[in-house]
Amino acid sequence: MPPVGASMGSMRLGSVVKTGKRKSKRRRRRSADEGSYVCPSCGEQIVIPLDRSEGSDQRYVEDCPVCCNPNVISVEYDPAWTEPRVWAEAE
Ligand SMILES: [Zn+2]
User: Fold this and answer.
1) What pLDDT digit, counting tens, does each position of 43-85 carry?
2) 46 CA distance to ligand 1 centroid (A)?
3) Minimal CA–CA distance to 60: which of 78, 74, 45, 46?
């Protein structure tokens, strides 16, 4: 048997895990409320979690996870809609 260990065994612990932050594939998340908007800067569709308890008319600024431009996100709930309305404008 040849001696083993010289070249193996020297692997570093704690290697850097690179998370590919490209086009995120659609996540199958069973979230009660989820909305999506199209980023006005890069045109990507961004899926965001929604919190209905925050009110039926929400407006907040969020950076686009793709191009990092700040967008003003508007969320509207209406009992007549099956889905909340979400849209974004460039700040
Ligand atoms: Zn963007």
Assistant:
1) 999 999 998 889 999 999 999 999 999 999 999 998 888 888 9
2) 8
3) 74
